[in-house]
Amino acid sequence: MMRTTDIAPLYRLTVGFDRLLDLMEQTSRVEPMTGWPPYNIEKTAAESYRITMAVAGFGPDEITLTQTGTTLLVTGQKNESDESRQFLHRGIAGRSFRQTFNLADHVSVTGASLDHGLLVIDLVREVPEALKPRRIPIGAGSPAPARIEGRAEAA
């Protein structure tokens, strides 16, 4: 038996967690996965990731990668223009696919390659300097407020 949880009350108890709550709500609405094409997600370094998808039979011109904000969409559409081929058995799947990956903030695709039927997508998380932790100096014995490094004073 599948149980659902109503997270609507969390929206009024939190500030700034909208994206996290939206992702939690989205998981309850996810359609059953077809399992095709199979893929791996691995962490290759502290801030680097790799998605490897098994897309045998697809060429680079038949696969499209699109990143919009924090969503990566991978689609595959076979070009079946060669009608002169007659298959006696067709065991290599050539059906179209659409796979969506939700990425964390500041994660972007740095490259993709297709080799031996494996689509490899490299990703990296790059936090902008403005969002990284910074040290704030504490002034001693001065009645004026301490100046924060890296910020210009307003005139």
From TrEMBL:
This is Heat shock protein Hsp20. It comes from Methylobacterium nodulans (strain LMG 21967 / CNCM I-2342 / ORS 2060). Residues 30-141 form the SHSP domain. Belongs to the small heat shock protein (HSP20) family. Keywords: Stress response.
